[in-house]
């Protein structure tokens, strides 16, 4: 071989030169083809290096570049700040720096001249050192437009949903809340975020859970909407009655994917229905009580007269005295019947609630001290007058406070509170921490002749209900065993006296 090279040295050099030229041509063809491919791609590719602390673009091609309103000549040789507005350049500088420091697949999104894009940067290394950064971009303008359109639609639906007083919720097949409208806070007192991610059964009354589970099970089987009444706990205590319609949402295969629940607060309707029911009972019981009282009173008066005559003739007067005491007790019961049955004329006047409560509490001061009961007063100073019959309201408060004291024979605490209830109502609450009332017995409170007391007639609370109802208000009772009972008298705030009723 050496001999051949010695004989034809010029020819060998020419062959090497030829090979180099061919390689150069081939590389140029590859480069040209690569650039053509880059030009024809829908996205964009670019390359940059760092010179004197600045990132200089050394390559930039692709149809996306032209859609942005630029050409390669405007980009190549330029640094970020020379090419883009300062705030835009500074925003992208951090991504470029991360890739230059060796981080792989640095991604970010951007917008230029109305075109949205997703960019990915990767470092190019030589002998272990980063010598340049290559980047690729894809056009996501259409995706962004769809996202924006969807976002606007969601905002529109959210505004509609949030402006509704109805409760709107989206549930998955397991009953987990995926969305809850802002009306949840208005109706239940909790922010809607509290419900999202939790079971829809979480805040339900224990008695309603099985009923709702059964309804959902039937709905899954029948694939038809279902309507149910249930009770949700309120942030401030008590229960809110909700009437809800639950409808299934189907996927493309016709299988249930979600549930949409739309509920409405029907607490006021329930309260009105209860007042009507109680009013009807009171009317019937009132007529019956009046008739019985009059029928018993006349012969009882005669019996009492004869017993009094015998008092002087009987050797052992103890039996006579006992008989007279029992007759007096019967007369008291008859009077209760008559008080309940006969319409009372209300003397409407401006009542100083603080003074009225002071008078009522004074009557129990001795008894409360003997029983080691502490009484705490909490009054809203802006709500201390209302219009009503002072004696009747006092009678109601005396009865409620007496029950609270009797519920704590071994001591405890009673809170007397006055605050605002909804728009134009005053709420007078008497809260004890006594033994409490079971839920079963709580339902019967206010029923004719139902009493917890051994010698009670059950008329005391019925009369109280009637008085408060005649004043345009109502009584709320809540209780928990071994924790206590809260009785609230809700009365409309009126500061004008019209006439006696």
From TrEMBL:
SUPFAM superfamilies: ATPase domain of HSP90 chaperone/DNA topoisomerase II/histidine kinase, Homodimeric domain of signal transducing histidine kinase, PYP-like sensor domain (PAS domain)
Domain of life: Bacteria
Residue ranges of every copy of the Histidine kinase domain listed in the record: 291-495
Reaction catalyzed: ATP + protein L-histidine = ADP + protein N-phospho-L-histidine
Entry keywords, A to Z: ATP-binding, Kinase, Nucleotide-binding, Phosphoprotein, Transferase, Two-component regulatory system
InterPro entries according to UniProt: HATPase_C_sf, HATPase_dom, His_kinase_dom, HisK_dim/P_dom, HisK_dim/P_sf, PAC, PAS, PAS-assoc_C
A GO molecular-function descriptor: phosphorelay sensor kinase activity
E.C. number(s) listed in UniProt: 2.7.13.3
The PAC domain, residue ranges: 101-152, 226-278
Pfam families on file: HATPase_c (PF02518), HisKA (PF00512), PAS_4 (PF08448)
Domain spans labelled PAS: 153-223
The protein, known as: histidine kinase
Organism for this UniProt entry: Ureibacillus xyleni
